[in-house]
Each structure stands twice: as C-alpha cells, then as structure tokens.
Q: What sequence folds into this?
C-alpha cells in the first residue's frame, strides 16, 4: 500500500513540475517513477513515466530522446494492453510529425489514433486529436475546416474536464483571427486563455499567450506594450527551457528593435537566432514561417538584397496556404527590394499588391505598404502616384496611428508643396523629431529640408541641418 501511494505521488508530482516548467525536477521525478514502478512490475506507471519523459524532451526539442522515450512507453503499454498509454504515445508521435512537417504521414496517423480512441472510448484523447487535426487543416490552407476542428477540440476538452488543455485550440483559433487582421477577436481568445493558464500556473502555455499577445501589439504598432509581453515570454522560456518559445520570442524581440530602429540590439539578437537555429532538430511550419519572414525583414533593412530575396521566397513558399500576412509582407518586400537593388519600378506589381492589401484588415501593415510605396514613387518622381497613395493611406491613418508613418507622409507632402510655408513646417518638424525611434525619419526630414532650402536659393542652411544630426 505504501509503495502504491509513493507511485501515485510521483506521478502527480511529475505532472505538476512539468506544467510549471520545472523540467529538471519533472525529469528526475519521472525517472524515479519509472524505477519504482519497475521494481514492483507496475508496467502501467512505467509507461506513464516514459511517456511523461517523452513529452518533456519533445518540449525541449530534443527529438531523438523524445522518440526513444515515447517508443519505450508504447512498447510497455502494448505489452499490458494499456489502451490509454497506447493512444497517448500515438498522439505524441503525431505531435512530432507535425513539427517535422510530415503532413501526409500525420494525416494517416491521426485517423488511426482517432479510430483507436473512439473504438476504446478514450474520450480524454479526443481533444488532443481534434486540435492536431485542426493544425493539419490550418497548415494545408483549409482554414474553415481547421476552425471546425478547433471548436470540436474545445468541446471535447470541456466534456472531460480538461479545461487547461482547452486553451491550446483557443490559441489556435486566435491565431487564425490574428492572421486575418481581426486583432480584437484574437485578443479576446488570448486574454481569456492567459487568465486560465495563469491560475493553473502552467508556464509552457503562459509563455505562448504572452508572446502571441505581444505579436498583436507589435502588429498594431504598440511596440512598448509588445516588448513588455514578449520579454516576459522570453524570460519564462529561458527559465523552463522551452526551445520553441524562446526562439519565437527572441525573433519577435529582434523585430521590435528593428522596427524601432534600435539596430544594435536587433543585430545582437539576430546573431543569437542564427546560431541557435543550427542546433535545433525540428521546428513547426508556423515557427519556420516566422523565422523566414524575420530574415527577409532583417536583410532588407540592412540592404542585403540577395539575402532578403532568398528568405522572402522561402517565406512565400512555406506560408502561402495559411498565413496571408507573412505572404503579403514577403511579396511586397521582394518588389521593393527589386526597386532599391535593380531600379525596377514595376507599377503593375505594385498595383496587384495594393489590391491585395486593400481587402485585408492588416491596418498597420497596410499603412506601411502605402507609405513605403509612396516613398518609392516619390524617389522615382511619379508625384501623381504619390498623391494617390497618400490619399488612400488617409483612410487608414486615424484607426492606425504611427509616429513614423504620420511624419513621413507629412514630410513628403511638404516637399511637394511649392510655398515657403512648407519650409517653415519642415523646420518645425525637424525640432520635434527627437525620439530615438524616429532617427531615420529625422534624417529623411533633414534631406528634404536641405533640398527645399537649396531649391529656394538658401545655400548654407542645409550644412547646418546635417551638422545637428
């Protein structure tokens, strides 16, 4: 009786330590559980221990060890006809297939474990299975079907009292709404799920929601809010050795620095990201799409045109079926890179992209596209097109305020005006652009102001402007 109690306690502790992110304690506890269970031929708990270890190593992205533990758990379960253990091992293998992006094989294995679970009335397995089926449909581009599976997953989790696990399909639903630009609906899901996991103390899930909420704030241009959420997510990921969580949070943090023109910190994290990527065994398609998009953005910002093209093409290839935002960002980035690198002013391509952005809800990225394209048209001297683009940007300006984009449009419009008042406006604006994240806008303003002064016969003033930078 005492030994049985000890085993039950070890099982409970292993689960608690894992959910709280204390992987070292969880591993030691499951290893101890395995040893104690083997002593008394308690093969059920020996299987539970191996499967618990498999899940931890999967979370740490040590896939070979995870596979070994899962296989051992499966063999033990099969030997005693422990149906829950058999189904659990099959589900864990499906999660590994998902991370390896082996979608055809995954589809077959999911059908097998679904049939097995239904045949043996293993209702506790259905939430996980339908969530994975939702992810499979999502990465295959069947978003409406994925939504159906996620809702089915939530229902199954609730029916079996697995409330903490229900936050996984909630997160995936929110991701779809975020991908579509419906940030309010996505935020509702994320915040509700974060409240649930916070109360339960599940750090693995908490860091996911913190990171995703941070991404939404980043996408709407609220970078200080985004930074606070993503830094917290990254700190948790480091603490609990969640490889994927750390990787995605580090990418997002580097992007925030990039978007706010803190190139030193962005570059420092870029070096860390590149180094870490080489050591990891597998990443899922959503993490890879984030990584490829990041590299495309990073190299474009630093004028590495060939690298920007290379990674933008990879982003387009991997996310064309499921992530419209990354797809559009990569496609427009390649068109802009062709202009800056080769002088290719492809107005047909620009108009095609403009039409695609117009029907999306990506407010801040829509503004970014129109302003960046207006700058290109301005450089090309296509002023009629500049006015056309800025007039359309006016529609999105109020709902998507941005100090960078608002000031850039002002500078361009002042430049196009012929009166002397526009010079005074540029001088006044030059004094207002003192924030660190507006340094490039200030340089742009100085260039335009110097040009305007020169055009009006004021020769010495531009030199003073540049000396102040």
A:
């Amino acid at each position: 009786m005492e030994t049985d109690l000890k085993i039950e306690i070890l099982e409970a502790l292993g689960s608690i330590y894992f959910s709280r992110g204390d992987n070292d304690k969880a591993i030691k506890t499951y290893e101890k559980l395995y040893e104690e269970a083997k002593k008394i031929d308690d093969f059920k708990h020996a299987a539970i221990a191996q499967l618990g270890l498999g899940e931890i190593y999967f979370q740490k992205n040590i896939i070979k060890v995870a596979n070994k533990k899962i296989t051992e758990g499966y063999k033990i379960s099969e030997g005693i006809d422990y149906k829950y253990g058999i189904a659990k091992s099959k589900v864990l293998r499906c999660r590994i297939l998902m991370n390896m992006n082996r979608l055809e094989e995954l589809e077959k294995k999911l059908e097998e474990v679904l049939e097995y679970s239904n045949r043996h009335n293993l209702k506790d397995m259905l939430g996980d299975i339908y969530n994975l089926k939702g992810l499979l449909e999502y990465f295959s581009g069947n978003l409406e079907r994925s939504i159906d599976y996620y809702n089915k997953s939530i229902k199954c989790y609730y029916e079996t009292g697995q409330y903490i696990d229900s936050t996984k399909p909630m997160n995936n639903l929110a991701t779809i709404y975020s991908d579509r630009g419906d940030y309010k609906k996505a935020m509702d899901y994320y915040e509700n799920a974060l409240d649930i996991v916070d109360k339960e103390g599940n750090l693995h899930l908490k860091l996911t929601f913190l990171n995703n909420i941070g991404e939404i704030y980043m996408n709407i241009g609220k970078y200080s809010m985004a930074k606070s959420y993503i830094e917290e997510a990254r700190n948790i990921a480091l603490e609990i050795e969640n490889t994927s969580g750390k990787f995605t949070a580090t990418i997002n943090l580097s992007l925030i620095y990039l978007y706010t023109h803190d190139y030193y910190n962005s570059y420092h994290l870029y070096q860390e990201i590149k180094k870490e990527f080489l050591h990891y065994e597998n990443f899922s398609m959503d993490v890879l799409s984030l990584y490829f998009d990041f590299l495309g953005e990073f190299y474009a910002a630093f004028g590495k045109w060939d690298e920007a093209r290379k990674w933008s093409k990879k982003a387009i290839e991997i996310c064309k079926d499921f992530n419209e935002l990354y797809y559009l960002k990569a496609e427009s980035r390649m068109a802009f890179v062709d202009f800056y690198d080769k002088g290719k002013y492809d107005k047909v391509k620009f108009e095609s992209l403009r039409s695609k952005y117009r029907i999306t809800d990506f407010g801040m990225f829509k503004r970014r596209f129109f302003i960046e394209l207006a700058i290109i048209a301005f450089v090309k001297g296509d002023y009629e097109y500049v006015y056309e683009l800025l007039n359309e940007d006016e529609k999105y300006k109020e709902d998507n305020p941005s100090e960078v984009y608002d000031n850039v449009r002002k500078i361009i419009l002042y430049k196009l005006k012929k009166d002397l008042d526009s010079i005074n406006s540029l001088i006044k604006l030059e004094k207002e652009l003192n924030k660190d994240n507006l340094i490039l806008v200030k340089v742009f303003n100085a260039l335009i102001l110097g040009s305007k002064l020169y055009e009006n016969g004021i020769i010495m003033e531009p030199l003073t402007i540049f000396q102040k930078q």
User: Anything to note?
Assistant: The chain has a mean pLDDT of 91.
